[in-house]
Amino acid sequence: MRKADLLASLVVFLVALPLCVGVAMASGVPAELGLVTGIVGGLVAGALPGSSLQVSGPAAGLTVLVYEAVRAYGVEALGVLVLAAGLVQLALGVLRLGRWFRAVSVAVVQGMLAGIGLVLIAGQVYAMGDATAPGSGLGKIGGLVSLAGDADPVALAVGGATVAVLLLWPRWRRGARLVPAPLVAVALASLVTGLFDLSVRRVEVRGLLDAVRPPSADDLGRLTEVGVIGTVLAFALIASAESLFSAAAVDRLHRGPRTDYDRELIAQGAGNTVCGMLGALPMTAVIVRSAANVQAGARTKASRVLHGVWLLLFTAVVPGVLGVIPVAALAGLLVHAGCKLVPVRELRPLWRAHRGELVVLTVTAVAIVVGNLFEGVLAGLALAVAKTAWDISHVHVETEDHGAAGIVVRVVGNATFLRLPKLLDALEALPHDRDVRLELGGLRHVDHACAAALEGWAAGRDHERVATSRSTT
């Protein structure tokens, strides 16, 4: 094992520790379950082939979906949901479908992350003020107006200070290379609240073994419910997409071996299967931890495996340390993470060059905020498919007037029902007292609706030719 991998594993551990706890709290489950997922992400997914430098664990991108699932089915059903999702991922990887996730519209992915980020920010602002958040995403956003009167000002100050440290610490590059910003922010918040004995809510610790709950036979029986099956598929597909998109991003950060998408999907599936057997949170590859791993100089997968070892040792030896962490600090950490999920810098270029993609992004994000994550992604995918169908169904009608010889009409492109009104308008606008020759050799595709319409138009012209002795082909 290289020294670089050892040092990188320590950096990733320090980044992962507060994030594991924060994601668990935001998901509505005990903090220990986030640590279990981080441990499995290192020891199981980290040891398997796929992406050599990508780090897995509980991710902010799934908090909204997990929170909704826990609220609908209870925390005791979480294990079976994650277990089934892991098995679905394993099947997708074995069937070599991992590479197809790269075909998902980038606008849908960005919209999904933006919607998750907005709901996450709205929900965690309440946690920053030790206040209770409304259940729906729209309710969370609407309730922000009255939050000032309900929030604890001390907790809100702790959360706000945490966000400030997260923004300012990276500007000191030397310090940021030595100690990651999330650890500094949470450690300072814990130190200040402890020294001044501030009356803010802190993380509740029950112990690792007490939090672990393998699925029972009754839990497995719930897999026959339609809603549970839909949640399982949402877990599997969204976790897979997030992991594989993260892998593509990590590959651009280093010059080492490229990701094998099918093997990485199998690794994620194996990790989620184990997480489900332990009743823990679902895992994905996490870009924040993965980037920290690469930037810390990691060379092999040993660094990500070791980060899981450090998490396990921490929770086994000093779990009580978690009890001094203020919830407001973890909420500030997740507000900062949620802001990073919203692709603000991408909006202006999309508006200038690809406004259709911006519409897909916006609709996906709004649908997630108004409804839920699964419905939002489905709406985004449907709109992206419709947009693509519209874009590729361009058809051009070119006319050439050859005088006494008549008019030559050439139809070029893809003739689909989406462009049928335009095509018929152009043909019906042709003069009825001239011979017309219709050339369709330039068409790359003609669907049934257009073929029937063209035959009907030609039949009408033939009838007119017989009646007026004018030739139409």
From TrEMBL:
Membrane topology, record value: Multi-pass membrane protein
Domain of life, source organism: Bacteria
Pfam families in UniProt: Sulfate_transp
Keyword Membrane attached: yes
Transmembrane segments: 72-95, 107-127, 147-169, 226-250, 309-338, 358-386
Subcellular localization: Membrane
Stretches assigned to the SLC26A/SulP transporter domain: 3-364
Keyword flag Transferase: no
Entry keywords, A to Z: Membrane, Transmembrane, Transmembrane helix
Name of the protein in its database record: SulP family inorganic anion transporter
